[in-house]
Every structure is written in C-alpha cells, then in structure tokens.
Amino acid sequence: MPDAPGYSAVRALLRVLEEKGHVRHEEQGPKYVYLPVVARNKARRSAVKHVMDTFFSGSPEQIVAALLDVSAARLTREELDRMAAMIEQAKREGR
C-alpha cells in the first residue's frame, strides 16, 4: 500500500475481523489489544490451502514446483535434504 490506512479504517477492519471470529480483543488500560483466535499453525495451513486452491488448481505438486522455482538459488543443501526427508516420510505414511 502506498499510504498507511487511517485510524478509522483500521478500527473498521478489526471490528469486521472480530465479528467474523478471526480475532478477539483484551482491554489493557485505555487500549484494546487484538489477538488471533486461531493458532498460528492452523492459520498457516488454511492460508496455504487457500493459495493452493486459488492459484494452483489444488495441486500440491504445482505449488511446490513454484516455490522451488522462486527460491531454489537460496535453498541450502540442508534445507533440500530436510524437504526430501519430509517427502519420503509422507510416502511411507501413505499420504
């Protein structure tokens, strides 16, 4: 965004997110502190599934290929080995 949103726009967005059950708030003195309702891991899975369904026709293979395409030069040998181990484990578990 070229310009930061205004105070009222942020308040409106947080109100909508709270109404939809995505965040909750706690009062800390005169301030509200907003906190996520869903655990980070669950939110991460949901976001990845949404991106995969929206941009990659629901294909895990296509999303992994795209990730490798944009980050292959930055991946270390150790990261590639860990990813290969995850794939081998998924094969063994029949996923």
- How many structural domains can be distinguished in the coordinates? 2
Q: Provide the gyration radius in Å.
A: 19 Å
Average pLDDT works out at 93
Largest sheet geometry? 2 strands, antiparallel
Strand content: 5-15%
Shape field: elongated
Helix content: 55-70%
Strand order of the largest sheet: 1-2
Report, as a whole number of angstroms, the end-to-end distance: 40 Å
- The total beta strand count reads 2
Count, helices: 4
Which structural class is indicated by helix and strand composition? alpha+beta
Describe the structure.
Strands 1-2 form a two-stranded antiparallel ribbon. The protein folds into two domains: about 5-35, no CATH class; about 40-90, no CATH class. The mean pLDDT is about 95. The longest helix is centred in the middle third of the chain and has 16 residues, at about 40-55. It has helices at about 5-20, 40-55, 60-70, 75-90; strands at about 25-30, 30-35. The protein is α+β, with helices and mostly antiparallel strands and about 100 residues long. Helices cover about 60% and strands about 15% of the residues. The protein contains four helices and two strands; from the N terminus they run αββααα. A hairpin with a 2-residue loop joins β1 (about 25-30) and β2.
